[in-house]
Amino acid sequence: MKGLGEMERKVKFATKCVHAAEKPDPVFGAHTTPIFQTSTFIFENVSQGTARFAGEEAGYVYARIPPNTPTHAVLAEKFAELEGGETGQTFASGMAAITAIALTSLRQGDHLISTDVVYGCTYSLFSQVLPGLGIEVSFVDTSETENVRQAFRPETKMVFLESPANPTLTVCDITEIAGMAKENGALCVVDNTFSTPYFQRPLELGADLSLSSCTKYIGGHADLLGGIAAGSKDFMNRMSSIVGYTGGIMGPHEAWLCIRGLKTLHIRMERHAENAMKIAEFLESRPEVEWVRYPGLPSHPQHELASKQMSGFSGMLSFEIKGGIEAGRKLMDNVKLCSLAVSLGATDTLIQHPASMTHACVPCSVRRSVGITDGLVRLSVGIEASEDIIADLEQALEAI
Asked: What is the pTM of this model?
């Protein structure tokens, strides 16, 4: 098959999922990308080795140093193609990606603006680790753009957005905030894990970098850890030394699993979103439920904005049961089809309690101030038959 770059017309997203960056193995003609299970690479001569280590010649030198291995390179190129970026970089986890981006962008005395509702470990990195390096962080309700505008300082070097946010599903205006960042000479970074590039492409909305935890929808089967980012070649080149020095790289087998996962991303995300809408509507109709947050629902505070910058609403939702934490525990203890587990983006439906699990590291006062109530339940809707997921939740609700 000809490379996508040789095709006369622009191919659709689904075709990119299957074909982008994929090339038959030049030696044996393998149809799928091989797993290059090697730590090092052989140079033809000393001159070539010297040139590659100096960055004067493209090529592979050592699996810890970008571009890592040919397997990683295919994944990075495929993801960048899907996100609309110039190039990409893989990592051992989503947190490794965020850490490398932060260490590349920020120095002592710099200032970071972050969405106030972010994944728990992101919050801990920003609130505990970065201040120890002399980097000040402001957590801001980015759903109100004026809050972001007022938070900028001369020393602001990066704006970090999570939209939709984990676990409140709050949405922020990426285009407007990215414009503010550019005006102030700051980098705009978006954690796009919940949406994936199938439903939202931050780079096309003006952001500088888009990252995802591959552990979630990119891999899609709850069987790997990984992270990935897409953006400009200039930034990735600057970040390559940080990646090499800190060593938070993805393994070649995980890279291969992510390549395989991306081939069905478009199909899986359609079913995740279709199911999530049905379940959100079901939950909103139940008397036991206080409220439901899903960007696809008209009741969502930023539904209009989400409809504008997203092509679909993915498979994540949150809700609160009347009766608070005890009622929520009864619900989660009584589900049979849904799995009580953290993480998200698996083929099966996962249910969990953020206040005691994924966001337990966030101080209680902070959780409550940003809407992560003790009774909030987060649901990662899988690709099972929606009728079966609803039946499971219905019997669990009736058991409360």
From this structure: 0.95
DSSP state string for 36-56: ---SB---SSHHHHHHHHTTS
Closest residue by Cα to residue 371 from 320, 331, 298, 327? 320
**Does 388 participate in catalysis according to the annotation?**
no
All domains of the chain in start order, with CATH: 15-262 (3.40.640.10), 265-398 (3.90.1150.10)
Q: What angle do CA 378, 382, 386 make, to 5 degrees?
A: 105
The tens digit of pLDDT for each residue in 123-165 reads 999 999 999 999 999 999 999 999 999 999 999 999 999 999 9
> Residue 339 forms beta bridges with which residues?
350
* Known catalytic membership, residue 208: no
Annotated active-site residue 234? The verdict is no
Residue for token pair 């962008």: 105
- How far lies 16's CA from each of 225, 244, 259, 305, in Å? 23, 29, 12, 27
Catalytic residue among 16, 52, 157, 216: 216
